């Protein structure tokens, strides 16, 4: 395993682990490496200093106090968490039935209410073409988060 410090075109810096240098190169070549903060795919390795140890090496500095994993590391994470909490309190998760539910509400066949869920690209495209207002959300469905 190798850890790289990466930087996106928006100047966000973040770290990520890869199985090998070749694995990183293969993923980056296919555009599958994205910024952990903004999701941009224009990512490159940042300048890093190798970790070298020897008998004359000075004692390493004490590590910074650990941040609890439950706390967001970046303001973007805080905003996404707030959005998830808002959705959980103020709308109904309808899963893969999103397109059908949105269409039924638009046609007056179901009571209008705030919903969120999942739709295949062709379903979302059809809703937009029918004039049904929808918006993509930058969060994962509840069953796909860890």
Count of beta strands: 5
Count of individual helical segments? 4
| Portion in helices | 25-40%
How are strands sequenced across the largest beta sheet? 2-1-3
Low-confidence stretches: none
Tally of domains: 2
Characterize the largest beta sheet: strand count, sense, and whether it forms a barrel: 3 strands, antiparallel
Class computed from helices, strands and strand pairing:
alpha+beta
Quote the distance from N terminus to C terminus. Answer: 22 Å
Tell me, what's the shape? elongated
Q: What does the average pLDDT come to?
A: 83
SSE arrangement, N to C: EEHEHEHEH
Rg calculated over all Cα atoms: 21 Å
Range of strand content: 15-25%
Keywords:
5 strands, 146 residues, 4 helices, alpha+beta, two-stranded parallel sheet, 29% helix, three-stranded antiparallel β-sheet
Walk me through this protein's architecture:
There is one protein chain. The two termini are 22 Å apart. The protein folds into two domains: 2-45, no CATH class; 75-141, no CATH class. It is built from four helices and five strands. It is of the alpha+beta class and 146 residues long. The mean pLDDT is 83. A three-stranded antiparallel beta sheet has the order 2-1-3.
């Amino acid at each position: 395993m190798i850890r790289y410090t990466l930087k996106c075109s928006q100047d966000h810096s973040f770290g990520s682990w890869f199985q090998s240098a070749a694995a990183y190169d293969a993923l980056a070549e296919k555009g599958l490496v994205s910024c952990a903060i903004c999701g941009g795919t224009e990512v490159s390795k940042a300048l890093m200093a190798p970790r070298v140890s020897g008998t004359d090496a000075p004692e390493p500095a004490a590590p910074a106090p650990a941040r609890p994993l439950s706390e967001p590391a970046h303001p973007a994470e805080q905003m996404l968490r707030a959005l998830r909490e808002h959705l959980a309190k103020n709308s109904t998760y309808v899963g893969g039935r999103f397109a059908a539910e949105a269409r039924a509400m638009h046609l007056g066949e179901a009571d209008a209410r705030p919903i969120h869920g999942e739709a295949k690209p062709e379903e979302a495209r059809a809703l937009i073409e029918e004039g049904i207002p929808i918006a993509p959300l930058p969060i994962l469905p509840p069953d796909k988060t860890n």
